TrEMBL record:
Gene3D superfamilies assigned to the protein according to its UniProt record, in alphabetical order: Dihydrodipicolinate Reductase, domain 2, NAD(P)-binding Rossmann-like Domain
Annotated GO MF terms: nucleotide binding
Domain GFO/IDH/MocA-like oxidoreductase: 143-259
Family label: Belongs to the Gfo/Idh/MocA family.
PANTHER family: GFO_IDH_MOCA-LIKE OXIDOREDUCTASE N-TERMINAL DOMAIN-CONTAINING PROTEIN (PTHR46368:SF19), PTHR46368
Alphabetical list of Pfam families matching this protein: GFO_IDH_MocA, GFO_IDH_MocA_C3
Superkingdom of the source species: Eukaryota
Span of domain Gfo/Idh/MocA-like oxidoreductase N-terminal: 6-125
The protein's name: Gfo/Idh/MocA-like oxidoreductase N-terminal domain-containing protein
Length: 360
């Protein structure tokens, strides 16, 4: 028996909304029902340009969409500084929320969003798409195999892309009043999430920003990095930037094996994604080549990862609507931990690159 269809309202016409609206259409248990912008014309043009269903309701204000009783869930791609206002408003209207990352300007704001969602019984999930790709589950199988990976020792992640002059001058991600977390919020979020995922979401004990971040004239971070340390000795580093060539790498090193991924955020190909592993590797007699077990693993995807995300979110919404289930707290808990580490990196930068303890 097929699931009920979750009717989405899209709250804002950001560029990322084009990708997620396509995912809503591709997912088997969701549909685009409404779209809102700050003007009726902009919302109407966005719907037409992205081939929304002809019956899509068009609203010229966000409040009008939230008042529609037939909207089950909202996708919220607004600038980060607006998340607390509109996510709380959506929750208070009983709308389930798929929220773009970073989820808030700081964890205190996000806690207000979670509180509103909890009080109104609505599901909350952030838009970290790679978490929902079937490759991610396959990589976790390797990481949990003590015989071939061993114990996690260190992690290194990187997400950079070379933004053009127009982006660096005008994009919302470089404006302090819109997305004031800059590359740390936009790209660093993915790096931090991947590190926490590798560590089974155990928070590090301390976070230390690396010296040499690049900030624009408005004080927004364009490039930065940090190191993380756990009580048991695990360590991690990450680098994120708007100023370097496109790179999306994960390296996870265990006591017996290593995992490498070179496209962890957006796969090289939509239909499949790969990762490589090595186990019990060493050198030959003359130290001229490697020995040991090395392999490349390809994972097929029936749906794009963003559609997998929408499908999973919609299934959780349906469980609440039709079975009386409670919202799944796994996802806001993961979001909060990611935001906590992000906040600590920002604090370390502001305090002169000192180690900052990560609060629970």
């Amino acid at each position: 028996m097929s699931e009920a269809i979750v009717r989405f309202g899209i709250l804002g016409c950001a560029e990322i909304a084009r990708k997620v609206s396509r995912a809503i259409t591709l997912a088997p248990n969701s549909t685009i029902y409404a779209v809102a912008s700050r003007s009726l014309e902009k919302a109407s043009n966005f719907a037409a340009q992205n081939s929304f269903p002809p019956q899509t309701k068009i609203y010229g204000t966000y409040d009008a969409l939230l008042e529609d009783p037939d909207v089950d869930a909202v996708y919220l791609p607004l600038p980060t500084s607006l998340h607390i206002r509109w996510a709380v408003a959506a929750a208070c209207k009983g709308k389930h929320i798929l929220l773009e990352k970073p989820v808030a300007m700081n964890v205190a704001e996000f806690d207000e969003i979670v509180k509103a969602c909890s009080e109104n019984g609505v599901q909350l999930m952030d838009g970290t798409m790679w978490m929902h790709h079937p490759r991610t589950a396959k990589m976790k199988e390797f990481l949990l195999d003590k015989a071939i990976f061993g114990d996690l020792k260190s992690m290194h992640t990187c997400f950079t892309f070379g933004a053009d002059a127009d982006f660096l001058a005008n994009d919302i991600r470089v404006k302090p009043h819109l997305d004031g977390l800059g590359s740390l919020g936009d790209a660093g979020w993915y790096c931090i999430r991947s590190i926490l995922w590798l560590a089974d979401f155990e928070l590090p004990e301390t976070v230390t920003a690396l010296p040499g971040p690049v900030l624009n004239d408005a004080g927004v971070i364009l490039s930065c990095g940090a190191s993380l340390r756990w009580k048991d000795g695990k360590v991690a580093t990450f680098h994120c930037s708007f100023l370097s060539h496109l790179t999306m790498d994960i390296t996870a090193i265990g006591s017996k094996g290593t995992l490498h991924v070179h496209d962890f955020i957006i796969p090289f190909q939509e239909e499949e994604a790969s990762f490589s592993i090595a186990s019990e590797a060493w050198f030959d007699e003359f130290v001229t080549r490697w020995t040991g077990k090395r392999s490349e693993h390809v994972v097929k995807a029936e749906l794009p990862q963003e559609a997998c995300m929408v499908k999973e979110f919609s299934s959780l919404v349906n469980a609440i609507r039709t079975k009386g289930s409670k919202p799944e707290m796994k996802w806001p808990t993961i979001s909060r931990k990611t935001q906590l580490v992000l906040d600590s990196v920002k604090q370390s930068i502001e305090q002169g690159f000192v180690g900052v303890g990560v609060l629970q």
